[in-house]
Automatic annotation (TrEMBL):
GO terms for biological process: fructose 6-phosphate metabolic process; protein N-linked glycosylation; UDP-N-acetylglucosamine metabolic process. InterPro entries: SIS_dom, SIS_dom_sf. Signal peptide: none annotated. One of its GO terms (molecular function) is glutamine-fructose-6-phosphate transaminase (isomerizing) activity. It comes from freshwater metagenome. This is Unannotated protein. Pfam families: SIS (PF01380).
Amino acid sequence: MHANSDDIQVMINEIELIPDVMRKCLEDQGGHIRSLAQSIVETGVEHLWLTGCGDSAFAGSAAALAFTKSSHLPTRGIHALDLARYEVRYLPKNSLAIGLSFSGKVGRTSEAAIQVRKFGHRFIALTNAPNGPLGIAAGEILPIDVPILGFSPGTSSYVGMLMTLFTLAAEIAEIKGSRALKESLEKIPDLAANTLELSKSAALEAAKIIAQHEWIAFIGAGPNEATAKFGAAKLFEGPQQVGVSTNIEEWAHEEYFVTKPGTPVVVVAPNGASVDRASEIVSEINFLGAKALVISESDLGFNSLHIEIAKGVSEELSPLLTCLPLSLIGFYIAELKNKKSYNFKDEETKVEHYETIHRATLGTPA
C-alpha cells in the first residue's frame, strides 16, 4: 500500500494491526513509560491532566479513570483549548500535563504545552514525532511508535495512545505496590483480537443500518463517553456522515426528542457502573420504535443489536475494546458508500484544513 494512499482499505489494514500495536506498547522498548512512571512517583505529582484535540482528547478522557482508580493519582481528561485558555492559570501545585498528538503538529496542544510550562508546571508530549512542534514546545517526550500504512481515520494510532496511557497507569500502580492493572493489561491484546472477530459480523450489520440514516447518536458514560465521541468522529472522517455523541443519561433529556421509529442509536455499555442505566435507556429506545446497537459483553435485550466485545476486562480498561467495533463500523460504512479517507474536495481545501488545525496561536488565559 502506498504510504500516502487515501484508499479506505488502509483503515481496515490498520485495524487488523491493533493487537500487535497493543503488544508493542506493553513491551515499552527503551523503558520510556517505566521511567516516566518512576519520575511521577518520585517527584510527588498529585494532579495529572491528559490533554489533546480530536482522538487525542478522547484518549485522555478514556484513560483518566484508570489513573484515578488504580494508580491513586487524581486525573482529568481536558481538551487542549480549555487547558491552554481556561484552566492553566488555576492548575494546583504539583500538577503534570501530558499532551497527546500522534502527529506532533496540532496547534492547540502545542499552545497548551507552552502555557502549562509558562505557569510553572511540567508538560510531557506523547507523540510519534519527537522533533515536531509539540515535542519542541514540551521539552519532554513520551514516544509512541505505531505503523501508519496510509491516510485514513485514526484507529491503531488511537489505540496506541490509549495503550501507552494505560501502561503508564499500570507502571505507576506497580511502583505504588499493586500489579493488578498490569496483569489485566497483559491480557488485552488477545482480548482485542477476540473482540475484532466477535464483533465483525454485527459491526457490518450495524453499518448497513446506519448507512441508511442521515444522522446517528453515539452514547456512553464514564470512560466510554469518550468512546462514543470516538465513534461519532469515525463517521465524520470516513463516510462523511453526521454522528452526534452524548452521555447515556443526556440522551434521555435531549436526543430522545428527535429519535424517530427506526433511528439507530449506538449504546456503548460494557459491564460496569452504568450498564444498568444503559439497559433502561435501551428499553426506552425500543419503546420509541428506534433501534439500539449495543456494544457490550452482554446482550441487553429489548430488540437491540448486540455487538459483542470479549469478556474479562474491567470497566476502566474497557475503552481498549469498545473502540474496536466502532472502528469496524466506520470502515464498513465508508466502504458501503465508496468513500475515501476524509474526502477533501480538492488539494486547496486539504491544505487550508491542516494549516488551521496546526496553527499554534497563543491566547491570553482567562
